Amino acid sequence: MEKTDILSLTYDELSKEIALMGEPQFHAKQIFSWLHEKKVTDFEQMTTLSLQLRARLQEKFCINRLKIAKRLASTIDDTVKYLYQLSDGNYVETVWMEYHHGISMCLSTQVGCRMGCKFCASTIAGFVRNLTAGEILLQIYEAERDMGRKIDSIVLMGIGEPLDNYDNVISFMKILSDPKGRGMSLRHVTLSTCGIVPQIYSLANDVSGVTLSLSLHSPTDAGRSEIMPINRKYNISEVLKACRSYIKTTGRRVTFEYAVIENINSAEQDAKALAELLRGMQCHVNLIPVNPVAERNYRGKRKTAEQFQRILTRLGINATVRRTLGSDIQAACGQLRRNAHEEESRR
Ligand code: SAH
After folding, report:
1. How far apart, in Å, are the Cα atoms of 4 and each of 10, 26, 59, 149, 216?
2. Atom number in ligand 1 closest to CA 333
3. Contacts of 347 (CB under 8 A, 6+ apart)
4. Is there an atom of ligand 1 within 6 Å of 107 CB?
5. pLDDT grade, residue 330 (50/70/90)?
6. Whose CA is nearest to atom 20 of ligand 1?
7. Does the beta carbon of 164 lie inside 6 Å of ligand 1?
8. Stretch 166-194: mean pLDDT, rounded?
């Protein structure tokens, strides 16, 4: 019988499993804390449990690991990029970033992506599979073990569309924030989405405190549908309505991501249309000169992004141009994983 992946279980799920084994509930608390607070890698290390119980757990469950296949440390700042190999041989990427206010990690939620955004390297080879809650957590745990330090905040902006792997992402957040384990406030978690509308409404009800970041990238439906296929399913007006509702339910400000692409969405009239669209919303616009992707000839210029920002600011919209960290190891998001696959197929 295949063993159950214990790191993917929320406290309630673990507690049910422990009850089924006929064991008292306080053991569920101990185990959850060993897994998510002390981050043990083996049942042997759960020294507050009897040897007999450790052996029973070993029979029924497994504690997975991720292998660090590549570790790229920036020489300009303290950014480190990890390429992890999953137990089935697939790869995902994670970035460790140090700011003056603390350490943040950018995590992946899927192997590949099926959203098809034209400017994004993670989607070009298509979708392989969802990550489990445990695999999302392990991106943090392995890096913390490697660095010997703890992180302060998380952005779900790596490979994949988090709202397309909704259940596992919610389990991940429940495990992360459970006071019986790590107890991290979800106010330190930002979820970035291309705009899967029904799940934006669900998110507001299922977990509390998460900062929503919406990848907008164009102020018009014609322009957005051209670069983001999801817009043909949920258009700008539906997405913004969901964002307004998210702000109302959670009291949190929403961030809009806007990758500035020369000759595509970078004109003065685009900035004006964007300001018009977001007027009166409790929000912030994050501008980023688009990272080049091999297959497309999209170009991003910092100067254009700064001009765009000045127009937005003048029109009363909060906007910043995102600071780039680890630019020497950047290789636009999703590139490391693609290179690893290409290397393997050449062998
Ligand atoms: N699927 C989610 C999260 C992953 S992408 C989403 O769409 O939001 C994280 C952010 O990086 C998104 O805002 C995405 O649009 C942006 N992005 C992807 N490729 C990019 C590129 N080549 N240059 C700049 N930003 C990019």
Report:
1. 13, 20, 10, 29, 39
2. 19
3. none
4. no
5. low
6. 120
7. no
8. 98
Regarding the beta carbon of 193 and ligand 1, being less than 6 Å apart is answered: yes
- Return the active site residues: 93, 333
pLDDT in tens, 263-317: 999 999 999 999 999 999 999 999 999 998 877 889 999 999 999 999 999 999 9
CATH architecture, domain defined by 4-62: Orthogonal Bundle (1.10)
How many whole angstroms from its chain centre is CA 15?
27
Strands 4-5 and 110-112: unpaired
Higher confidence at residue 3 or residue 295?
3
Q: Which CATH number fits domain 67-346: 3.20.20.70, 3.90.850.10, 3.40.50.720, 2.40.37.20?
A: 3.20.20.70
- Residue pair 60/6 in contact (Cβ under 8 Å)? The answer is no
Region of 251 on the Ramachandran plot (φ > 0 left; ψ -120 to 50 alpha; else beta): left
Q: What is the mean pLDDT of the chain?
A: 94
Phi, psi of 199 (to 5 degrees): -75, -20
Confidence of residue 22 (pLDDT cuts 50, 70, 90): very high
Residue nearest atom 3 in ligand 1 by C-alpha distance: 157
Structure tokens at 81: 């990029």
Contact assessment for residue 87 and residue 201, using Cβ atoms and an 8 Å cutoff: no
**Of 228, 269, 207, nearest in space to 113 by CA:** 228
Label residue 29 exposed, middle or buried (CB < 10 Å: 0-12, 13-18, 19+): middle
Q: Does 194 sit in the ligand 1 pocket, CB within 6 Å?
A: yes
Residues of the chain with CATH 1.10.150.530: 4-62
